[in-house]
Each structure stands twice: as structure tokens, then as C-alpha cells.
Amino acid sequence: MTASPHFLNRPVSRRAVLGGLGALGVTGLLAGCAPSGGRTDITFFMSKTEVLEHFTELISEFNSSQSNVRVILDSSSNIAATFVRGNPPDIACFTYNLEMARFMERGALSDLSDVSIASQIRPEVQELVDQYATYPGRTSVIPWSVTAAAVIYNQDIFEEQGLEVPRTWTEFTEVCEALVAAGITPIYGTYRDPWTIAQGHFDYTVGGSFDTAEFFEKMKEQGPQVGIDSSVSFQKDFFEPMERMVQLNEWSNQNAASRGYGEGNFAMGAGEAAMYMQGPWALTEIEKTAPDARLGNFPLPMTDDPDDLRVRVNLDLALWIPEESQKKDAAREFLEFLTKPEVQDTYNQQFLAFGTRQDAPPQEDPRVAELQSFYDEGRFYQGPSKAIPLTIPAEGYIQAMMTGSSIEGTLRTMDNDWRRLAVRS
Amino acid sequence: MSTPTITTVAEPAAQRAPDEKSRRPRRKVGQERTSWGATILLLLAAVTVIVPLYVTVMMSLKTDAQAVDGNAFSLPLPLDFSTFARAWELTDFPRAFGVSVFVSAVAVAGTVILSALASYAIVRNWSHRLFRWSFFYLLAAMFLPFPVVALAQIKMTGTVGLDNPLGVAFLHIMFQMSFSILLFTAFLRSLPEELEESARLDGATTGQTFWRLVFPLLAPMSATVAIFAFLASWNDFMMPSLITSDPALQTLPVVQSLFQDQFTANYNVAFASYLMAMAPAIVVYLFTQRWVLSGVTQGAIK
Amino acid sequence: MASVAPAPSTARPAPAGERKGIPGRSGKFNRVDPVFYAFLLPALVLFTIAITVPAITGIVYSFTNSIGFGESEFIGFLNYAVLFSDPAVLSSYGFTLGFSVVTVVLVNLIAFFLALGLTSRIRFRNALRSTFVIPMVVSGIIIAYVFQYLFSNSLPQLGQAISNPVLSQSILANADLAWIGVVLVTAWQAVPSALLIYIAGLLSIPGDVYEAAQIDGASGRQRLWSITLPLVAGYIVINVIVGFKNFINSYDIIVGLTNGGPGTATRSVAMTIFTGFTGGDYAYQMANAAIFFLIAIAIAVLQLRVTRGRAAIR
Fold first, then answer.
1. Which of B148, B149, B171 is nearest to B160 (CA)?
2. CA distances for A244 relative to A173, A264, A330, A401, angstroms
3. Which of C173, C267, C275 is opposite residue A191, by nearest beta carbon?
4. What does the alpha-carbon distance between residue A106 and residue A129 come to, in Å, rounded to a whole number?
5. CB within 8 Å: C234 and B13
6. Which of A245, A376, B244, C284 is the most exposed place for a label (fewest CB within 10 A)?
């Protein structure tokens, strides 16, 4: 995380008067979004910490490029609270997931089918939005940046040990055994942070085994009937992937249970292990302590057919404009700016992500370039852990399985939770 | 329950507060041997308080490379103050600090005044049902889980234009009221009423009696109430993050949550920000601790 | 004696002069001065608007299927019915109550003995008192982050140094031990306020009571049991009730320390309720919160009844 001198400063210099504490309360009352000098102020929500600086620059570029709209960055609001209050941001560039889908499903996001980029989005990518929910007759969400996550591996270690990138589960186990034999920790686990297991070990093993979008579609249909006798269930369909997930433990660092994400990044930079179940966000963190580390990426194989290989993707950033915004036109102006190919492509290139337009250029960074073909061919899935509503403490359950709880019992609990949720909603 | 059971517990303590002064010298006369055993045990116990604070300071002074070596107790040499500069910049510390001071100041003043007024009315009219029931009504909220009210409060403050630090301070006052009234009523019951009666005989109104006589007498307990109100307000994350809609007017704990984000591997910057979050309250406390301690122990109960 | 004991009982005759002037009790002023209404009403009205009305709104939502946004419909008591068969909810109650009981006991033991020490004839008394109060002023979530680092890094290093296999791993990563970490950090922060109350209580015992006991040949332990403890009983009641109320609402420290893990081993009720916001399960968790509120009140009343009875026997 590098210092960005003005991303938080900017709005203040105009609004808040330090020291004049009484005045502070008053400015708070008045600080709506009054037009300043003929310009329309719009609030732009973007809370991805690692890229704040980049967006600060984009905003100032946009603000100085025209004189109609002035964009003000919001990176700390509680987004649910803003919708409840009825004053959501005018435009947001935000991770798109089940939680956001709930707002979209209820018509909180306006139709963007007529913005210029709408027709250019790759259909398979737009389909990712629809997997969560749809609102009839609207294009509520514009995918802007997709990240692809797989197994990060240390190329130096692989070369020194004469190892090939595995393309089947059997090859993968052989790679792990060879590393163990050479006294190298094959996989670095950071189980203290449950999300790292959920997005890595869990999503890769499940997503690599079968079509998870279809699975959750059926789970939704079955709702209150989910259980041991239903056509799909966690107990039935997740059991085998979970056994393999727990098997990964054998090849992981012994202290994985007390290591966190930060320590994992440092260890990978220091070459303490050969593989790491993380997305490209980890690559930029590793770079901070080990700028010269040679890292690559491959999807975790779960079958013995190399054609089954698929990568985990997520809609890391997507654009939307709330129905309740009073300044949709101004917001759209900024949207048009953000979706200019040079703006969008520069971002995706720099932050190791993939573009969403049909004509988006390929990712050139060697650390993730290996995933390009999977992305191009549509061989990807959205993380199944993200398809489970947050009210079911799935990350906790996954962490429990990983650290020794019964797989069968935990999956049964997840089925029960799913059923109870379906009954009441 | 015909009597305020909880508060009567407190009475004797308050009323006996002056004993400390009259007692101490007496003890000293007879049996004055310092108990070194107890002193050493307490010093050892104090280490458990100091260690986490020591680690925080040490970690915050390390460089990126030193911070990941995993040894929390090693001395950070060379000293690296740049983390503070980074944390300072990233959180825009002075502004967030200003907002926090504003919120806490309003919350403390409002809590003390509103609760003192209400407590006085309640205690002096205990035989009247309205006042007695008001007491229990206000007290029950102490047990209310915050999420029950959060959503409606977000809507309400948004509707009336209080989705800002002022609204946060207002809600802090409301949430602190139960506990503060509990403390004030306990103290008020122990105040002898002769003074008030003679003030009335001299022609003072109830309002004058309160402001000129009772409120000054409440000072030690007001100090206690103020301290708790300050700490609750200063350290609160949830309320401002949900209520304040303008990100430029967020309080210190909210902007500092930036470092607690899962995508941060820099322990030294994180600890620098922890230190900056702790320091103001600790510094204020160290400067006022004499007054705080005597206020609390003379206000007797809290 | 009677004038000394901080007895949690109103049945005891009030010390001379203490209450005689209170209007109403003495019957001197039966008419309420209107100014008193003006004193009480601001608090009452604002409180009703800011707390009561939202609370009722929240409870009303517990009978719907609302996600906290958009439209919803009434579903009667369904949320409540489902609640009592939800193992996630039940286990959060189990953890929260167990954790609270242990923490209340630990905090009061530590605070009481610290208070005894800090009111005895020791050196550096003021410096030590000041030091022990510091944890109170630090925000819970921040201190949880610091301790999380210590538990995950420094303690395992110590465990490795003494070759203890259990301690070599972070106790926070151990589903059977993580609760101990939560108790310790919560206690670290909660001891000061209990300590201050006990110091106040101990200082209010006149020295001559001890002197008399000493002349009678009472040992240190006898003095503790037969003089000190009974005299501070009222303060124990306060510390237990306020402490319990705080601990069953634990949120910050757990989030910073374990975030409810490993697995769901340290998920508190407050954490579960909060998922109602983030997880789109608002109405359901409002039902949970309503039940939780009733339980909290019931426990407080029960504690009062029990302790009050004991004090009366004494």
C-alpha cells in the first residue's frame, strides 16, 4: 500500500474546516452535493484499497478534462447503509457479488443497456452477472474488470526440481510428492484468514470438479427440499471435492492454521513454498517484498482429463448507477469515461486483471498470462463460496473442515442452513 | 419492584467517599511497613498491561523488512518513522481526528447535561409513577442489542438530515443515557437534601437550585459519566460508519479501518495506525489520570 | 456496622439523615414542580424517538421476510419458529453465555485481588493504579488486533522454544482453545472498570474496622472472609451485572481476534445478529435480537433477585 497524498484530502479542503469544530457540524449538515460553479458534483464509490491511488488519478484526469461534472470519491461508506438511507452513491465501481445482487434484484440499479459499452461486453462475462440474479428488461450492471484466480507457483522452484505444470490431478499429486521428497513445502496455507481457504482451496476443488453455476441453480429451485434425498445437495455433490481439499493439508506448511494472508504473501516472496492458492491481488502484495520473484499461474486440476481445466473468476469491479441517483446523466458521463478502452484496458493490464469487452487486449504480464487462454475460451467459473449467502457462515464451515471437522457433518449442516433459509425467505 | 434496586447498591459508597481522606493518615500512624511482596506481585501483573502496548510501539517503528521477521519484541533498529507518515497521510489523520474530537465533545456534553437533568427529576420525584417508570424505561435500553435499532436509525437520521457527525453524537448520547442515569441517580440519592431545602427557603426556584447547587455537587460523578461517555464515543466504529454519509466527515476509527483491510501485509504500517488510534486516548488519560482516579473513586461507584 | 455496609438492600433502615428530606418519601412535597417535567422530558422524548421507535420498527420487521431493503411481506412467527431449530444460532448462544460466565468470574477475581493489592501498603501505589487503568481507554478492536498478532506469532515462538506442541500453534487456530484467547483479551480490557469499583469499595471501609479485627487476633484470611468480602458485596453485584451485560454483547474484540473462528467456535450472538445486515437476512436476525434482548433482561433481573436475597440474609 503506497501513500496517496490526496485521495482523502480532496473533498476536505473545500468542506471541512479543521479546528472550527462548531463549523464542522454545520458543514456536515450542508454537505449535500450542491453544484459548484455550474458543475454537477457526483459521488463515486470505489473501495478497493489497493487501487485507490490509481482511481484518484483517473478522477482528477476526468475532472480536469471537462467542466460539467466533478467526481468526488467515496471509499469508506457502508454501501448497504447508503441504500437504506436512500442516498446511494451516484455511480459505483464495486465488486459484484450476491450481496449486491440483492439490491439489483429489487430494482435498485438503473438500466444501462444504452451506454456505448453495453453491446460490446462478452456474453460469457455478462452471464456471470446473471448467475446471481436478474431484473427483467434491464442491464443493471456493467462488468469492468474480471480477475482470474488459480494456483500461483514459484517458477524457479519448479525449474530447479525439473517439474512441469500439472494438468491432471494425478500429475498434481506427483508434483507435490516430488516437492516433499526434495524437502520443499509444496503449498503455503494461511488458514487463519478463512476467506483465503474459501476463495482458494474450496473454490478451486469444487469449481474444478463440476459446473457450479448449474448446481446453485438447482439448489435455488429445490430450496426447502434440500437434503440427503434431493437431486443436488452439499452432502452429495461436495463430498469428494472436500476430501481432496482436506488432502491438500498433507502438502501444506505445518503451521498453516496460525498463518494469515500477510504472512503468506511474505513467505511466497521468500520462496518458502512452491505453490499458493491465491488470486492476482496476492501477486501485487508479494511484489512489495520480493520484486524479483518469478511467479506463474495454473488452474488446479481436479480430474484426469486436461480438458476439464478451468479457472476461478470473479467480477472484481463492475459499474452501476442506482435508480435513486438524481444525477444519472452526470454519472453516465463519468461511466463513459471509465469505459473508454484506453482507461479500462490500462487498469486491467496494470492490476493483472482481464478486460470485459469482446475486443479487450490480452493480459501481457507473465505472472497471469498463462490464464489468458482459459479466459478467452470461457473455461471459467465463479467461486462457489460466493454463491452461498453470507448468512450461512460458509467460510467458518470451510475453515473447520480444513482443520479437522467432519466433512460429512459439516456439509449436512450447510444443507440444513440452506433449507432453513429457503423456508423463511 | 417498588424500589430501584440497582441504584441503592451504590448509595453507601458515595456517601462514604470522604472516608478515604480521614482514614489514610490514621492507618499510616500505627503500622507502617511497606509490603514489598505485594508490590512485586503488582509490578509483575502490570507487565501484562505494558507488554501489548510495548509491542505496538516497537512494531510501529520497524521497517517493512523488520516487521515481517515475526519477532515482536526485538528492538527496531534503525528506527523507522516513515510508517507514521504513511499512516498519517493515508488516513488524513488531522481531519479525522478533528471530526472525532467534535463527536466526542458533543456526546460528552450532551450525555452529562441530559442525564443529570433527568436523574435529578427522577430521584426527587421517586414517589410519582411517571418518574419511577421513566427510570426503568430508560434503564431497559442498556440491554438492547444495537442491531435492533440500527436500520431504523439509519433511515431516520437520513430523513432529518442528521446523517453526519452531529447525528452520530446525538445517537451516542442516547445510547449512553441508560448507564449515565444509573450512575447519577445513585449519587443523587446520597446527597443530603437540607442544602436544597435551605436554598428553596432563600427563594431559589427548582431550576436555580439545580444549576447553582446540585449540578456543582454532582461534579465527581459528572467526571465519571463524562469519562465513560468519552471512551464509548471516541472508540466507536459501528455508529459513524453506518450513520455518516459524507466520507469526508468520518471519524478516526472508521478511516483507520482502511488498515484492517484483508489486503494489507504491512504490519508496521498497521501497528503505526493502531498506535495512532490508541495514543490520543492514552495521552489524555495520562494527563488527567489523577483527576480521573480521584473522581471515580470519590464518585465511588461507576 | 449498618452504616458501613454497602448493602444491596433497601429493606435496611437508612442511616440517620440520609433520606429524610426526599420529597415523596417524607410526604413533604406531593405536588410535582412543573420544572421537573421540563428536566425529564427532553431525555424521555429524544430517547423515545432515537431508541424506542427504531426498536419497535426492528421488532415489527422480525415478523416479515425483509432483507433490510425494498419490499417485504409478513410471515408471522416463522422466523421465530426457525430460530429455535437453527444450530448456528443455538451454538452462538451457548458460546456467548459460557464465555460470559467465565469472563465475569475471571474479571472479578483479578479485579478484586488487584484492588486489595492497590489499597494495601505498597510502593508506587499511584503509578500502579494508573497503569492498571490504561486498558480501559483503548478501543477493543485495536487491542484485539494487537493480541491477535501476539497469539499468532509471539506465543507460538515461545511454544516452540519450550517444545510444547500445543502452544507451538496459535491458540486462536485451535477450536478447543480459541475461546481462552477471547476470554483473556476481553478480561484484559474489562478489568480496569471493575477494579475502580472495587478500589472505591475498599477505600470506603474505615481502617478501624480492621484494627479492631487485628486486636481480636483475626488472621489475614479471616479478615478477608469475614470483613472485607461482606463489606464489598454490593460492589460485586454491580460488577457482575454490568460485566455480564457487556460480555454477552461482545463484538469488537471477537471480530478482531478470531472473527468467530476457527470454524464457528467463537461466534457470539452479537456477531450472528450483525450478519443480518451483511448477509441479507435482516428480518430473521431481528427475531434473534428480540429473543436476545428478552434473555438479557431476564438474566439481569434474576441476578438482582438472587444477590438481593443473599445480602438480606447477611
1. B171
2. 11, 21, 51, 11
3. C173
4. 15
5. yes
6. A376
Cβ contact, residue pair A76, B241, below 8 Å: yes
Among A70, A50, A81, smallest CA distance to A10 is for A70
3-class DSSP state for residue A317?
strand
B204 — pLDDT class (breaks 50, 70, 90):
confident
The helices-and-strands tally (H runs, E runs) of chain C is 14, 0
pLDDT at A125: 94
Q: Are strands A91-94 and A273-278 parallel, antiparallel or unpaired?
A: unpaired
DSSP string computed for B136-163? HHHHHGGG--HHHHHHHHHHHHHHTT--
Check if the beta carbon of residue A264 is closer than 8 Å to that of residue A290.
no
Comparing alpha-carbon positions, the chain B residue that sits nearest to A283 is B263
Classify burial at B5, counting beta carbons within 10 Å of its beta carbon; exposed 0-12, middle 13-18, buried 19 or more. Answer: middle
More confident residue, C4 or C297: C297
- Number of domains present in the structure of chain C: 1
Residues in contact with C76: Cβ distance below 8 Å, sequence separation at least 6, in sequence order: C63
From chain C, the residues in CB contact with B253 under 8 A are: 139, 141
Asked if residue B27 has pLDDT above 60, the reply is no
Whether residues B258 and A76 touch (CB distance < 8 A) is answered with: yes
- Residue corresponding to grid cell 484492517: B260
> Are C264 and A80 within 8 A, CB to CB?
no
Interface mutation target, options B92, B237, B243, B257, chain A, most CBs of A under 10 Å:
B92
Q: Is 90 exceeded by the pLDDT of residue C169?
A: no
The answer for B 76-105 residues in CB contact with A (under 8 A) is 85-86, 89-92, 94-95, 98-99, 101-102, 105
Average of per-residue pLDDT values in chain A:
88
CATH level 3 topology of A32-147+316-376? D-Maltodextrin-Binding Protein; domain 2 (3.40.190)
Task: Please indicate whether residue C252 or residue C5 has the higher confidence score (pLDDT).
Answer: C252
pLDDT given at position B22: 41
In this prediction, residues B99-120 reach a mean pLDDT of 96
Is C231 part of a structural domain of the chain?
yes
* CATH code assigned at C195: 1.10.3720.10
Q: Where are the domains of chain A?
A: 32-147+316-376, 151-313+382-424
Instruction: Give the count of beta carbons closer than 10 Å to the beta carbon of residue A366.
Output: 12
Q: What average pLDDT does range C137-166 have in this prediction? A: 84
C-alpha cell at A343: 482507461
- pLDDT surpassing 60 at residue A5: no
pTM: 0.82
Residues of A in contact with C75 (CB under 8 A): 424
Fold for A151-313+382-424, please state it. Answer: D-Maltodextrin-Binding Protein; domain 2 (3.40.190)
Query: Which among C79, C152, C267 has CB closest to A396?
Result: C267
Question: Cα(C297)–Cα(C245) distance, rounded to whole angstroms?
Answer: 9
Contact: C24, B127; criterion CB under 8 Å: yes
Q: Is any Cβ of chain A less than 8 angstroms from the Cβ of C67?
A: yes
Buried-state track A12-30, b at ≥16 Cβ within 10 A, e below 16: beebbbeeebeebbebbee
Lowest-confidence region among A48-57, A292-301, B96-105, C225-234: C225-234
- pLDDT, position B286: 83
Reported as a pLDDT band with limits 50, 70 and 90, residue C259 is confident
Q: What ipTM, to 2 d.p.?
A: 0.79
The two counts, helices (H) then strands (E), for chain A are 21, 9
* pLDDT at residue B29 in the model: 40
pLDDT the model gives residue B2: 36
What is the amino acid identity at position B51? V
Q: Would residue B52 be called left, alpha or beta, if left means φ above 0 and alpha means ψ between -120 and 50 degrees?
A: alpha
| C270 located within any domain | yes
